[in-house]
Predict the structure.
Amino acid sequence: MKVILTEDVRNVGRKFEVKEVNDGYARNFLFPNKFAEPATPAALKKLAARKEEHDKDEALLLGRLNAIAKKINETKLEFTVKVDDSGAVFGSVNKESILKALREHDIVTKERVEIDLKYPLKELGEYTVPIDLKKGVTADLRIVVSAEAEK
């Protein structure tokens, strides 16, 4: 039976693909879970329009993610941490504080980002942290960790 997938289905195919599957699999799993619909001539016409709209939405999303990546690449965030007389750092800069700073500077709003920080930054200096914005778009954020001014 030919079906049009309405969702990505593991080991079957991706959304909007037309696939040939067993009748029982389609009736008992794909249709009840709304993962697919029968590939009728009318449904195939609707598929073309939906796919075109989906591709347009994907292009807009990629454009927005690329603009965010460009902004991140141009940004340098500065974090101040407390330091004792011997130079030992109290506290650290972690993923949550970086994400919070990105949101405070209106660089990232509701987008989901993956900050690739293997361990918190606990030393003074300048760092480059890779950020994955999904859909294959990545950026490098420059972070400066400096000592808090004495009072």
